[in-house]
Amino acid sequence: MNNWLCLRGSIKNIVKYDNTKSIFLLAIKRLSGTLDILPVKIDSNKLKDIEPGDFVIIFGKINSQNITINGKQRVSVFCYAEKIVCLEIKSYFNKFISNGTLCKIKPLYHAGHNRILTECILSIQRKDNKYDYVPLVFWEKDAITVSELPIGTNVQISGRFQSRKYKTKDGSAEIVCEVSVNNLEIKKEI
Fold first, then answer.
1. What is the pLDDT of residue 46?
2. First-to-last C-alpha distance (Å) of the chain
3. Do the Cβ atoms of 32 and 79 come closer than 8 Å?
């Protein structure tokens, strides 16, 4: 699978993006109880009879897009929903599977509870020859493995699409969307 995402959660709000697209935030509870609040873009006509507060299942992919906020260039990472269905029950699910090329691998560092991690970007080619750039977080032995790989290594990963708050150097709060990887497979070149 090149870029596959399945999410189940609760819609927080819906905003019309332009004449054909809408965006909304989807809340997904982790096993720890932490809520991930994830941006979703969808064709507006697929939202008929769906309202904030509804529990839905979404099938789609993770996309990225260059945007400008307060004069600064950033990469926005979001779910592009290809299919959405209203659910009768309240349930949560979050699974991402993809293959692509590793780029911009950061050095290893220690997080809370002295856990080792590294961050990098996965470049995923679309059918239209464009690319999506998805931030990844690797933990423990996978982090060590990835930190030793050369840029351009082809991998297959699976994990959870998540949101995380952090403080910038100037002290302002930011939210980043990324994939916390729980399975890594290094693909051999042909």
1. 93
2. 18
3. no
